[in-house]
Amino acid sequence: MFGGTYVRTGIVGAIGANEDGVTGRTDGFVRFHLDPFRQSRWAPYGGAGLSGRYDAGSRPRAYVLIFAGVDGPVRNGTTTSFEVGLGGGARIGVVIRQAVAERR
């Protein structure tokens, strides 16, 4: 989306189930990369944003989202990242995405 060399923006949506039925969320966020040119094999990043949560039978709720993660090396045109954060509860994530060797 928008951003620059060190800053990237994104939007993520998810749907799932909990003890009350169907649940969903949308996240809008900004990530700050400490090594945008892949000078290191593993590189940390951090971010913040807003998260909306939608549970069956409840009103939508908004949360502040904060997270930290690390981008891994590029292999066969993909990279893996690991994240932890807070935003409507604890968050742990694994991200697999397309990547190029010269840029995060």
Helix percent band: under 10%
Question: Based on CA inertia axes, which overall geometry fits?
Answer: elongated
Query: Hey, roughly how much beta strand do the residues contain?
Result: over 45%
Q: Describe the strand arrangement of the main beta sheet, using strand numbers.
A: 1-2-3-4-5-6
**Order of helices and strands, N to C?**
EEEEEE
Given the structure, what is the number of helices? 0
Q: Gyration radius, to the nearest Å?
A: 15 Å
Q: Could you give the distance between the termini?
A: 14 Å
Whole-number total of structural domains: 1
Structural class designation: mainly beta
Largest sheet data: 6 strands, antiparallel
Compute the average pLDDT.
Answer: 91
Number-wise, the strands total: 6
- The residue ranges in which pLDDT falls below 50 over 5 or more consecutive positions are none
